[in-house]
Design a protein that fits this description.
mainly beta; binds CU-O-CU linkage; binds copper (II) ion
């Protein structure tokens, strides 16, 4: 069935109300439920899973430094609505089919509240995973005001739980940002972009098989794929919605919550985006862009000025990114090449909002501050069923701890990508900075394991010079990031945010460790240059 675009109005997710609030903390309860959701006027209701029965989940609005406690309650049935691959880690016959654990993406929180993949729980906490810590999660919000998002992170089924609908926004604000007088209130709108596919009866389609060469006789009936892409673009839970916009400035907080799909966004009116924020906070200065490439889990905070447009004018937000990015199929200009439509109407009041030339001070890390440098290779191989298997440093998720940054120490991580595809690499606990991308000799690397740079160091573009928690790692390039770990010690994960890669098996644990013996921790001189 081909759905007609631009027939449903864009919904805006509701703001979540706390259960209780006092001087010491704000307390929320959030239930994960199964329910039916209308994705499009002409589509029958779809069985989904969502926080508080909503797609996307309700939005948290919190203040910087506000102490937020959340009881995440699993009220889901025992049976998954999507096909579970029993050959993946954590998905064996003795593991419950439906497991959840909530991660606040981009937040710096204690490990016990980070949503570790093995800290899952089933309905009413009947069963808990091998690393379950606590029921009520604590978020201290001592970071820059920004757009974070919460989503499920259960081991081996993250791709299914997020696709089923378990994702929502979490916005941190502060006084400094309020005083900037950016467009706000009804003129500040989040756009959560996802791609889905539907069966004719309205149910969610998610592939359960994959083609491999010479499959062994025990090839599973239900198998993970190397990456899902849907044929329908959904924004805030509606397929190709429209939004009436007044002739004035708007602020859009854009999140790519898709499993695999990257988007190259542009406006068919030829207008520019003014990017004011990245994953972890405001940019130092606004950046004007004709197009923006947004990878899974990245956020871009933009202002779009419709004041120069005529009333009645229709402007499409379009996508030109290939999938897999950046070598696969180009999008169909009539379907996956469309995101949503803006319909310009008259202003109801004067636009007094501004986009200041200077937004916030971003202190760049100095490369010389780095205590050490680590190499993380992004590897592709085959598993025992001849399926593509994605690894980090050729180890899988249960392959032991190899990264142990010291608390309060700065490190440089080099993501080495000898493959064909981009991988959006995400590190928990930190907001990092992108240092650069450097092309290297892939053949020599594959033959000898040596990294020899072959070209110019590419500085990050202006809109990547803010705080980031996810970085697009280009094929044939070493992507260098710099981060300061801490203040918490303990176990976190880093992974590719293409959810099918994360589940199989492009995710690794790491420990932030106390500096017990500072004399024995030698600063490493190697900066990777
Ligand atoms: Cu949004 Cu560990 O991920
Ligand atoms: Cu995260
Ligand atoms: Cu990947």
């Amino acid at each position: 069935m081909v759905l007609k675009p631009f027939v449903d109005a864009l919904p805006v997710p509701r703001v979540l109300k706390p259960k209780d609030k006092n001087r010491d903390r704000t307390y929320y309860e959030v239930e994960m439920r199964e329910f039916f959701h209308k994705f499009h006027r002409d589509l029958p209701p779809t069985k989904v899973w969502g926080y508080e029965g909503q797609i996307p989940g309700p939005t948290f609005e919190v203040d910087q430094f506000e102490k937020v406690h959340v009881l995440w309650k699993n009220k889901l049935p025992d049976k998954h609505i999507l096909p579970v691959d029993r050959t993946l880690h954590g998905c064996g016959e003795h593991d419950p089919e439906v497991r959840t654990v909530v991660h606040l993406h981009g937040a710096n929180v204690e490990p016990e509240s980070d949503g570790y993949p093995d800290a899952w729980f089933t309905r009413d906490f009947e069963k808990c995973g091998p690393r379950f810590f606590r029921k009520v999660y604590k978020y201290d919000n001592f970071q820059e005001p920004t757009t974070l998002w919460y989503h499920d992170h259960a081991i081996g089924i993250t791709r299914l739980n997020v696709y089923a609908g378990l994702a929502g926004l979490y916005i941190i604000r502060n006084e400094h940002e309020r005083l900037l007088n950016l467009p706000s209130g009804v003129y500040e709108i989040p756009l959560v972009i996802q791609d889905k596919s539907f069966n004719p009866d309205g149910s969610l389609f998610y592939p359960s098989t994959v083609d491999v060469q010479n499959p062994p006789p025990d090839f599973p009936d239900v198998s993970v794929t190397p990456g899902f892409t849907g044929n329908t673009i959904v924004v805030n839970g509606k397929a190709w919605p429209y939004l009436e916009v007044e002739r004035r400035k708007y602020r859009f907080r854009i999140l790519n919550a898709s499993n695999q799909r990257f988007y190259r966004l542009s406006l068919d009116s030829g207008q520019q985006f003014i990017q004011i924020g990245s994953d972890g906070g405001l940019m130092q200065r606004p950046v004007k862009l004709d197009e923006i490439i947004i990878a899974p889990s990245e956020r871009v905070d933009v202002v779009v000025d419709f004041s120069g447009q005529k009333t009645g004018c229709k402007i499409n937000l379009v996508n030109t990114a290939r999938t897999p990015f950046d070598f696969g199929e180009p999008p169909d200009p009539l379907t996956t090449g469309l995101i949503m439509q803006f319909r310009v109407i008259e202003r109801t009041s004067e636009d007094t909002s501004t986009v200041p030339e200077f937004l916030t001070k971003i202190k760049r890390y100095n490369e010389d501050d780095a205590y050490r440098m680590r190499d993380i290779t992004l590897d592709v191989t085959n598993d025992m069923y001849n399926r593509l298997l994605f690894l980090l440093n050729n180890r899988d998720y249960y392959g032991g701890i190899t990264e142990e940054p010291g608390v309060d120490e700065v490190e440089i991580w080099r993501f080495v990508n000898p493959g064909l595809a981009f991988h959006p690499m995400h590190v928990h606990q930190v907001q990092f900075q992108v240092l650069d991308r450097i092309p290297f000799d892939v053949n020599e690397y594959v033959a000898t394991g040596r990294i020899r740079y072959t070209g110019e160091t590419e500085d990050p573009p202006a809109n990547e010079r803010g705080w980031k928690d996810t970085v697009q790692c280009a094929p044939g390039h070493v992507t260098r990031i710099i981060a300061k770990f801490g203040p918490f010690t303990g176990r976190y994960v880093y992974h590719c945010h293409i959810l099918e890669h994360e589940d199989h098996d492009m995710m690794r644990p790491f420990d932030v460790v106390a500096k017990l013996d500072p004399c024995n921790r030698k600063k490493c001189d190697c900066r990777g240059k």
